[in-house]
Amino acid sequence: FLDFPFQTGRIEPNYPKVCGHQGNVLDIKWNPFIENIIASCSEDTSVRIWEIPEGGLKRNMTEAVLELYGHSRRVGILEWHPTANNILLSAGYDYKVLIWNLEVGEPVKMIDCHTDVILCMSFNANGSLLATTCKDKRLRVVEPRSGRVLQEASCKNHRVNRVVFLGSTKRLLTTGVSRWNTRQIALWDQEDLSMPLIEEEIDGLSGLLFPFYDADTHMLYLAGKGDGNIRYYEIGSEKPYLSYLMEFRSPAPQKGLGVMPKHGLDVSACEVFRFYKLITLKGLIEPISMIVPRRSETYQEDIYPMTPGMEPALTPDEWLSGVNRDPILMSLKEGYKRNSKIVFKAPVREKKSVVVNGIDLLENVPPRTENELLRMFFRQQDEIRRLKDELSQKDIRIRQLQLELKNFRNIPKNN
Description:
This is Coronin. Keywords: Coiled coil, Repeat, WD repeat. The chain is mainly beta and 415 residues long. It folds into 2 domains: 25-330, 7 Propeller (Methylamine Dehydrogenase, Chain H), CATH 2.130.10; 354-414, no CATH class. The protein is 11% helix and 37% strand.
């Protein structure tokens, strides 16, 4: 993947890339507390942590500061903890969610309650709860440290794809497909998933709906894969809960969307949300700003309340021991000034086994697909070649020692 934080316009074909994975990269996430740290996951079953140098990349980056192995199949989803530093969650096609403590570089917890591929993960505001959607058509609310399922919904009429916690409102929003194959959204009470609070059909298109929620303005944005438009709604605390506002229209279809963190917005222009739209047909990324039209040039406190900043509220050990804290808030009134002194220090690891819940995750894992079988075959071929080279070098060394020993024995005793 590419990293170009300080450039606009068309990039050169040989622009430096982060290219250390041995398979397709399936997800990347920026660290919420350290601006130059990225986590990525891939079909090669690994999760990797990258440190982008000051000023951006000057050459291709192939060496990650930390490589994490624990999944037996490809890894599709990553999620950083919203309040605890150096806590990262990864979901793989082995149906498991691993919780990594990056200070030690090992998985410390495993959530093993899913029976099929995990489609989406979302933390609540303080990171004490995790919501997941799964290919088994179930929506779950999980206590991540114990792996205990607190609530579970069987979504047969509303086949869930994506889920997002709506801030601290104790509500969830899911996007999915109805029994008539129309795109649909549903609002849920996190403490009772027996029935959704509301269901609303969007349209009859087939692309996935990606939900994005802004807890500061209570705005929900819906963007469909393959669509050119982005709908936005206001979330209320009383019925009908969901109020349609407007939509952004564009003839260029989007394959995916990224979001700028709140502290990166232009508050002087009343920008409340910014998307980065991936347009594959044109090979470009287009920024889309959501701006509240205001004539006044003074700071608009009603649209910029205190917002979660870049200082973690918890250490990894505190969160793993059961402590929960709300995010540390910051004001955008004076504009964003980088004052975070947190740096990432990669741990030194020598262990070759990964034991979680008494199970060695890397021991005798059988391949489940043809691609995995081929990758394992090529890895074994490389290992056999390495061992043969090592064996031949040792044979040469043995012959040298034998020759030296023979010469030593032939030396006259008087000498």
